[in-house]
Design brief:
about 325 residues; binds S-adenosylmethionine; Rossmann fold; alpha/beta; DNA polymerase, domain 1; 7-stranded mixed sheet; 2 domains
Length: about 325
């Protein structure tokens, strides 16, 4: 079993999400190869962890890695939003961690077309049992839909040009491999863009992956449902890797932190504001220079953490 992913912001995650009493339950909503979970299980000997992942293959790695912890750790093959929506455990969690996106494993070892530098089948589904693959999206979406998703999810200013090149290519050859897609994107952009700081297909690949796995929709749902099932006094920590995710998390946390502003003489709250969380990270926690030097993919990580202070049902507009 070879581990290829370095967990990001490990010490910071530990500081914010460490248990504050014995026998607590942490749900690692994005267990991946199990790096964060291993850290918690090792440092806190009576903590229990349940780890979720939509990808069966990476979950097998975590299962092997965490075998020494026996029944202190459980595994669920599921999307995190579906799990928290239909929360199946008897006990509510004290801590929830979401470390969004994909793992180095996906780029390096999954063979599922996440990397623009590998010649693999263009799939990008975390759960390969169902849903549209990247191949379906690039070959079947109409040009405007493709351009819009590359613009929106990839923040790619050359989205129209790239979508048009994809549509021209697929008339001649079905686009079936990651390298084929990367090469055609590279050819479609101006020379100056071709040899920039990042590969010219980076943003488009990110956008297609986000669309394939409905990443933003799942995030919108999970923040509400995870907060809903969390115990009062429990903590939710979310690590994001791009601005769309971070914005969504920041706004949701800020909204949940709002207090009632009704005049005290009103018998009942009319403004719908009721403080559900305490935001523990006024600014997002980011990796140190040293961490970025050791692990380049950590450079865009941002951690935000809240503590739940009241029941969700106080927010009438959300139930
Ligand atoms: C960044 S990796 C997690 C790395 C892990 N924290 C570690 O330290 O090893 C994210 C993992 O979450 C999974 N994942 C992403 N979105 C998911 C979702 N909506 N539901 C369940 N799993 C998801 C991915 O398959 C991937 O394995």
């Amino acid at each position: 079993m070879e581990i290829v992913h370095y967990s990001v912001l490990k010490e910071e995650v530990c500081e914010y999400l460490k248990p504050d009493s014995p026998g607590q339950l942490l749900i690692d909503g994005t267990m991946g190869e199990g790096g964060h979970s291993e850290m918690f299980l090792t440092r806190f000997s009576d903590l229990k962890v349940i780890g979720l992942d939509a990808d069966r293959e990476i979950q097998q790695i975590a299962m092997k890695r965490l075998e020494p912890f026996g029944d202190r750790v459980g595994f669920r093959h599921t999307w995190f939003n579906e799990y928290f929506r239909d929360y199946p455990e008897e006990v509510k969690p004290d801590r929830v961690l979401l470390d969004l996106g994909i793992s180095v494993f996906h780029y390096e070892k999954s063979g599922a077309g996440f990397s623009f530098s590998k010649d693999e089948k263009l799939d990008m589904r975390l759960n390969r049992d169902a849903g549209l693959s990247a191949e379906d999206i690039v070959n079947d979406f109409d040009e405007k839909e493709l351009a819009d998703l590359i613009y929106e999810y990839g923040e790619e200013r050359l989205s129209r040009r790239i979508a048009s090149a994809i549509c021209r290519e697929r008339v001649v050859n079905r686009i079936t491999s990651s390298l084929q897609l990367a090469e055609l994107i590279k050819k479609s952009v101006p020379q100056s863009y071709r040899y920039g700081r990042i590969h010219p297909a980076t943003r488009s690949f990110q956008a297609i992956r986000i669309a394939v796995n409905s990443e933003l929709e799942r995030l919108d749902d999970v923040v509400k449902d995870a907060l809903n099932v969390l115990k009062i006094g429990g903590r939710l920590g979310i690590i994001t890797f791009h601005s769309l995710e971070d914005r969504a998390v920041k706004h949701f946390f800020r909204d949940m932190n709002k207090k009632c502003i009704c005049p005290p003489e009103l018998p009942r709250c009319k403004c719908g504001g009721a403080q559900i969380v305490n935001v523990l990270t006024r600014k997002p926690v980011i990796p140190t220079e040293e961490e970025v030097k050791l692990n380049a993919p950590s450079r865009s990580a941002k951690l935000r953490v809240v503590e739940k202070v009241a029941d969700f049902s106080l927010r009438k507009n959300l139930i």
